[in-house]
Amino acid sequence: MADTAKPKGRAAKSSGTRKRGRKDTSPGLSNEKPEILLDYYRRMLFLRRFEERTAQAYTQARIGGYCHLNLGEEATIVGLMSALREDDYLFTNYRDHGYAIEKGMDPRRVMAELYGRTDGVAKGWGGSMHMYDTATRMLGGYGIVGGQLPLAAGAALAITYRGGDEVVMCQMGDGTTNIGAWHESLNIAKLWNLPVVFVVINNFTGMGTTVEMSSAEPDLYKRGAAFRIEGERVDGRDVLAVRDTTTRLVERARKEQTPFLLEAWSYRMKGHSVVDPAKYRTDEQKEEARSEQNDPIRLFDRQLTEAGILTDELREEMAASVKAEVAEAADFAENSPHPDVSTLFDYTYATPVPNESTRMPADPVFAE
Known about the structure:
This protein is of the alpha/beta class. It contains 11 helices and 8 strands. The chain has a 6-stranded parallel sheet with strand order 1-7-8-4-3-2, with helices on both faces. It has a two-stranded antiparallel sheet with strand order 5-6. It is globular, with a radius of gyration of 21 Å.
């Protein structure tokens, strides 16, 4: 096991602070092409502005249901997705907007899905938590904690049956590591030598409970040891460190046909969902999560600026371009039609099922 970005000390309980020192885990910028670095920066910035627009639309009642944002995870998402091939598979939890976009879904269709419109990636029936697109091999978006793990293991098994060389990435939050599906899926993945990389996004708080108060082993990358799965931890605020560490594990899974575990830690800037005021955090913890030293975009901005790669003019140009693209996505969603009520049961089953109920809420229980 390797800890490539170990936080200093153990996190305090919810009444205290969670100080984690930044450690340089990437090789630096000298060996990177400037155009690639700027591309990462723009992609991270786009995810930030997209999620901010999503929060705005939710408060305006344009988006309904549950809605969980990727604010603070931008470097992790871009780094993870940069390590995958187009034909690799991705399964995520309900905090999935950024992953859907980075896996190749059209941001306009992602926003339309959030709005519940027919031009959405799931025709408006999935919503925030259920992004899905077979073309990009992003196979969900799952609202049940841990629900994606058995399915990811099954997809990896299918790859081995076909003799393919694709890899499955299965993303989850820290709270999932205490779910039964976690133990079952990791166990079977190792027993059957499945090419799957399990990625735990550790933002230190599973919904409203700190990792230390819910996990006897809070170093989550070690929790694959019971299944003899090699684990590593990486600083999720560092896009290059995430990319490099993930690439190494993904390619090992591809070549060695065996599972790996990666823990990426970063700060969740807001509450668990859009409507969560995060009262379980102290004011100091909230300030820490949103501080410059823990904001992946501001950190990367400073790195690129100090290296002379990102200029004021280029920054303003990117900001304007991203703002316009996000606005276009919102306009597209706004102008997309609502699903017709008659299509409510069209996608309940993949194939026809005898005696399938299509009773509407106002219909009588028994036909006269």
